[in-house]
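Progress note, sequence design subtask.
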């Protein structure tokens, strides 16, 4: 971000704040998961503060009902991917900022390597399942995460900064935490996940302000003291909530050991990845991809169940059922995480693999290696 434009140093006032470091913010990359109401507001705040690069991740397109709560969208944006509409508006607000739109589901849009390299991850999601998936992926690579959630008249802010600290999933039941254990397309709604909760615009702006402060302070090297903050616009009470560490919470075990670089990217084929790995190695994806199923009625194979990549780069969800291409019998979709079950000629991206993903690879002699895609 260029500080000095034709109108002078746009950050002159910010620099007066004790502990502010404009260069540090300009060099930072923030991943924003969710570009709805909260993500709009938070992204706007971060580029105005001079954060150098934002990776925006959201699979949805702008709907008319978004326009009452989204500062970055205009009526002309209805139908466009949210990430692209937001990127255009953010570039107008802060011409020097690098905005990288990723119109896909989190796990397909942003690889673990990118999460590991980011200075901060910001969660602006409105569903428990998405929030659990984001927490799980950040925990795997120990990426600092600031997560905001809104309620009709208030909301919550949650910080996950280190694997040693209690996290907000420690306070959930195993069933709630398990919302992401299944491939997301066939997971049932988790207990307590009744869909996006509506929030008044003031709540969105309020929680976005809180997560902006938490994000900036974390990037400037002095994060806030709390890890869970409850904000209630009706009582006026805003207070930290103590979290206890649940020993059975799975989000405290980052991947260990060296991460190998395969030299293979997501646009390469499954076969190219297998050829780059040691003989007999078994690469695994983090979530299942659909595999060919034989029709029990006519015996035909559905060879390409769920070709997931759409023309705009978005990834289409694959349902638990597919239809026989020959006789139209309803087939139960099967999923696998073993890349050896996939067609070797398919690209990794068509299977939903993100750029710079880190894959776990089971070795023939036992044990695992970590391999990062380029
Ligand atoms: Zn935990
Ligand atoms: Zn059939």
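Output:
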């Amino acid at each position: 971000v260029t500080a000095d434009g034709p109108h002078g140093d746009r950050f002159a006032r910010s620099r007066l704040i004790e502990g502010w470091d404009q260069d540090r913010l300009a060099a930072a990359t923030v991943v924003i998961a969710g570009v709805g109401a909260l993500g709009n507001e938070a992204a706007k705040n971060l580029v105005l503060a001079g954060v150098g690069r934002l990776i925006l991740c959201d699979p949805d397109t702008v709907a008319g009902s978004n326009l009452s709560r989204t500062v970055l969208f205009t009526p002309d944006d209805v139908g466009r991917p949210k990430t692209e509409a937001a990127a255009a508006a953010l570039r107008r607000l802060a011409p020097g900022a690098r905005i990288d739109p990723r119109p896909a589901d989190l796990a397909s849009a942003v690889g673990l390597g990118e999460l590991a390299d980011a200075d901060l991850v910001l969660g602006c999601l409105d569903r428990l399942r998405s929030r659990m998936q984001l927490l799980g992926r950040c925990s795997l690579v120990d990426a600092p995460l600031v997560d905001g959630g809104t309620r009709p008249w208030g909301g919550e802010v949650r910080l996950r900064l280190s694997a040693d600290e209690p996290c907000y999933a420690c306070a959930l039941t195993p069933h709630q935490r398990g919302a992401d254990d299944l491939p997301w397309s066939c997971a049932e709604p988790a207990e307590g996940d009744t869909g996006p909760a509506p929030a008044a615009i003031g709540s969105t702006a309020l929680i976005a302000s809180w997560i902006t402060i938490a994000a900036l302070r974390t990037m400037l090297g002095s994060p806030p003291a709390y890890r869970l903050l409850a904000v209630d616009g009706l009582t006026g009470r805003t207070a930290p909530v103590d979290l206890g560490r649940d020993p059975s919470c799975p989000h405290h075990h980052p991947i260990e050991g060296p991460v190998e670089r395969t030299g293979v990217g997501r646009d390469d084929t499954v076969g190219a990845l297998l050829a780059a790995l040691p003989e007999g190695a078994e690469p695994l994806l983090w979530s299942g991809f659909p595999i060919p199923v034989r029709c029990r009625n006519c015996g035909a194979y559905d060879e390409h169940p769920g070709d997931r990549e759409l023309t705009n780069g978005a990834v289409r969800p694959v349902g638990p059922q597919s239809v026989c291409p020959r006789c139209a019998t309803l087939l139960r979709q099967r999923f696998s995480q073993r890349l050896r079950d996939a067609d070797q000629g398919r690209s990794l991206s068509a299977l939903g693999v993100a750029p710079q993903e880190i894959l776990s690879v089971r070795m023939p002699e036992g044990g695992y290696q970590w391999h990062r895609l380029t």
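The first strand starts at residue 4 and ends at 5. Work on this subtask will continue into the next period as scheduled.
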